[in-house]
Write a structure and sequence with these properties.
With 207 residues, the protein is α/β, with parallel strands linked by helices. The protein contains seven helices and five strands. Strands 3-2-1-4-5 form a five-stranded mixed β-sheet. Strand 1 and strand 2 form a beta hairpin.
């Protein structure tokens, strides 16, 4: 079995006390906000099926997101706008979104566990966990709620800015999206700091 195929073992989070799992979505897209979520699960109410949101179908994500929001001890969202992505850079903006999500929790966690290898300052004990969305249930839950939330936002943007296919690709640079950028030019929710959008502006299109 290759390293890529190996199943990652879950991490025992009991030594961390009350844990908030944090994850974000929206680093790679050319349009829309970065959305982060923080979740504190109830250890007395386990939720079956939690895993990396990218490994779930849309229907499964929707079902799990509803269960997470209904049964978690606390959950909250934070976002960084397109303007913040462009002015700060997307990594800094993603950390800002995470900070806003943790700050909005109704329960103060003992430890914040973040998916990835970098963390912002939450003013709380914090640890980055590589592939945490596959190894820590609270991070999996955060990834699911963040993904469902952002996907819904992009469906709404599709209605406001027709022709770009936001409801399909959720802002990611698919072939269809790049073709639409070339033909229609960027719209108000495209990230001006991203190279494909800059090229479309240079070609003379967009708002």
């Amino acid at each position: 079995m290759s390293q890529r195929q190996q199943k990652l073992e879950p991490i025992d989070v009991s030594p961390y006390g009350v844990v908030a799992g944090v994850d974000e979505v929206g680093i790679g897209p050319l349009a829309g906000d970065v959305v982060a979520c923080a979740v504190i699960l109830d250890p007395n109410t386990p939720i079956n099926g939690l895993r990396d949101s990218k490994r779930l179908s849309d229907k499964a994500r929707e079902r799990l997101a509803e269960s997470i929001c209904a049964h978690a001890l606390s959950w909250s969202l934070g976002s960084a706008s397109v303007a913040e992505v462009d002015s700060l850079n997307v990594l800094v903006a993603s950390h800002l979104a995470m900070q806003r999500a943790v700050a909005a929790l109704s329960v103060v966690p003992d430890t914040v566990l973040v998916d990835g290898n970098k963390t912002p300052d939450f003013g709380l004990p914090t640890q980055a966990i590589v592939k945490g969305d596959q190894r820590v249930a609270a991070i999996s839950a955060a990834s699911i709620v963040a993904k469902v939330t952002r996907d819904r936002q992009l469906v709404e943007l599709a209605a406001r800015f027709p022709g770009y296919g936001f409801e399909q690709h959720k802002g990611y640079p698919t072939k269809f999206h790049l073709q639409a950028l070339a033909e229609l030019g960027p719209c108000a929710v495209h990230r001006r700091s991203f190279a494909p959008v800059q090229r479309a502006f240079a070609a003379g299109g967009g708002e």
